[in-house]
Design a protein that fits this description.
15 helices; single chain; 11 strands; alpha+beta; 2 domains
Length: 380
């Protein structure tokens, strides 16, 4: 393995970036893990690939909508934000690694010197780079903090493209449920976790990791579905959700009241029926129903602020059976299978609103008329 050794005849000390770094070997190639100050990130990664055709680009085009969200994360959490490493390729320019021990030219610890004119391509982390630049405009004092950057040397375009593909192909995003489970920053997430651990219909019946329930699982709902349904109930449409004690109390009261009016849920709590059995036979045992109940509940509380509990008693009159295709096919089901796409969710909400005597909005009226027209057309 050939190491980059200083050449005393070359003046490379001018116009270079110098970073504390660790030298390593991966796939037979040298790479360097360096600590880079945040204020240098915009300057180092200055090459804009957005107008370059994808065939000769090493990265995807920036999704501009993601940048403010990530930047706000840094700005709003200056004491406890965390970032993973940026991966980059230096495709031109002379790079030197100077070991801390001049007597040991194969040493792993040292200083990485990167010429300022070198072209540096990001393999993974372009949105982090753009967000850091944006965040520094609001909090310039963060500029002296560091992020680790993994530099690969002279990778070339083909290699850079392959690195981007490999890094993203094998990346697995955590499920929504587990993200909520581990979120200690958002108060709303904490409240939903508390409800999932306390309310009878959720306690011991919530899957805290997955976003879907398998047929044989003893769990009833996922944490992500409870989160969605409760957010809809309380009208929490913002990205970062907050909750008051009064709202939390109201949400608990609502879900407990719904439980009282769905007899099968009470049997489940008592252990007299399995959740898998309910999933096989009833719509109310699926996430689409819980989410729809949350959305309907929001309108219920607005329409009947003083008598919403009385109105919920009308849930007793609903035949939740999946065999009741006249009601549920096309709403919560498609070809006999439970479906939770946006149209199925909207049509399920429409049905619940009508049963609870809640007026439909103009948009909901249009959706309902279109659905009924389609049903009549199919019947003919």
């Amino acid at each position: 393995m050939k190491h980059t050794v200083p050449d005393e005849n070359e003046d490379l000390e001018t116009a270079v970036y110098s970073f504390p770094a660790i030298r390593g070997i991966q796939a037979g190639r040298e790479y360097y893990s360096a600590m880079v100050q945040l204020k240098l990130i915009p300057a180092i990664f200055r090459f804009n690939e957005s107008e370059v055709p994808p065939q000769i680009r090493a990265q995807r085009v920036l999704n501009q909508a993601r940048i403010p969200e990530i930047a706000n994360y840094i700005v709003n959490n200056p004491r406890d934000y965390v970032f993973s490493s940026i991966s980059a390729s230096i495709s031109d320019g002379r790079v030197r690694f100077v070991p801390l021990d001049p007597k040991n030219q194969t040493g792993k610890l040292g200083i990485l010197k990167v010429p300022m004119e070198a072209k540096v391509l990001i393999n993974d982390g372009q949105h982090r780079r753009a967000a850091i630049e944006e965040a520094l405009k609001q909090r310039p004092e963060l500029g002296n903090e560091t992020i680790s950057v993994v530099f690969f040397i002279d990778a070339g375009l083909k290699r850079s493209q392959q690195m981007f593909s490999d890094l993203n192909r094998h990346a697995v995003r955590p499920t929504k449920s587990i993200s909520i489970l581990y979120d200690s920053r958002e108060t709303f997430a904490q409240s939903v976790r508390d409800m999932a651990n306390a309310l009878p219909i959720f306690k011991d019946l919530t899957d805290f990791e997955k976003t879907s329930i398998s047929n044989r699982s003893r769990k009833m709902f996922t944490l992500s579905t409870i989160y969605q349904a409760t957010a809809s109930l309380l009208g929490k449409n913002t990205k970062v959700k907050k909750i008051t004690k009064e709202e939390e109390t109201l949400a608990c009261e609502f879900w407990n009241e719904v439980t009282k009016n769905i007899p099968d849920w009470q049997l489940l709590i008592k252990g007299e029926v399995a959740s898998s059995s309910l999933r096989n036979d009833f719509v109310h045992a699926h996430g689409v129903a819980l989410h729809a109940l949350g959305i309907t509940g929001h309108s219920l509380l607005e329409t009947y602020p003083d008598s919403w509990k009385e109105q919920l008693k009308k849930l007793h009159a609903i035949d939740w059976s999946r065999s009741n295709e006249k009601v549920w096919e096309g709403r919560a089901m498609t070809n006999g299978r439970i479906s939770k796409n946006q149209m199925n969710l909207a049509l399920t909400v429409n049905y619940l609103k009508q049963k609870l005597k809640i007026p439909l909005s103009p948009d909901e009226e249009k959706i309902e008329k279109r659905f009924l027209k389609q049903i009549r057309g199919n019947a003919e």
